[in-house]
Each structure stands twice: as C-alpha cells, then as structure tokens.
Amino acid sequence: MIADRARFRHAKKLERLAGYRLPELAFSGAMLETLCSKINYDVLDFYVREQILSFFNDFLRCECRDSPLCGCPEKKFAKKVIELRENGLDHRQIAAALLDEYGIELFPMDILSFLEESVHVLEAISDVSRLQGKGELAKKTDEHIRLIER
Question: Which end of the chain is more exposed for a tag (fewer CB within 10 A), N or C?
Fold first, then answer.
C-alpha cells in the first residue's frame, strides 16, 4: 500500500521531542502512537506544527477502538492520493502537495505505481459488478478510472 512508502520529513524533530528513536515511516505504529501521545508540539516551529496538525486531523481522527493502529489512517491516506489525482494533479504534483501539506515524502514513481494498481483494482470491481447486475456501481468505478487515467 502507498502508506507503507510514506516517510515523514520531520521524523528527527519528533524523535528529539519524544525522547526516543522513531522510524521515518509516517504510518509505522511507533510514529502513529507518538503523534497521538501527549507531546508538546508548541516547541516546534509554526510550519512543522501545522503540518503535523494537518496530518493528525486528516488521517488520525477515527472512532475505532484500536485507533491509531486500526488501519484507518492508511486507508484515508490512499484515498487522499486518489482524490488528488482525480482533481487533476499528476504524480509529481501529488508528491509536492503531500510534502507541502503534511511533510510526507513519497517518490513520484511510487505514486504512479499505486495509481496504476488502483486502476487495475477498479477495473476488476467494474467487471464483477457488471456480472452481478450492479450497473450503478460499475458506472461509478468507470468514472473513477476515467478520472485517474486522464
């Protein structure tokens, strides 16, 4: 999944703030738990703090009992990448947008691979939904495919 490749640019700053070693991976269990712990983010500069708050608000807010290790953050992140593509951004622009908004670094080719895999999954969903007589679902998936491929 695309979330497994996302690296948090400010991992070293968070590591110093937390007082223990953290992986760079944005969606690793240790990083997610650290972000949800009671750390004083006020000591960080404004830009980094805003990126962390955006990350927290967009990906870590859910009502699951096992939050943040429930899988919701990774799903929300994948959805965000697809939404950015459907809004017309190419893989390089998506990487730049994620870095600017959340401080998340991703290689553009990883994004391109993820989008290609997503299209294949959507094509399978479309085919199965047609076989099951669910034309509305097939239309929706075809629309998503069209928006991703343009």
Answer: C
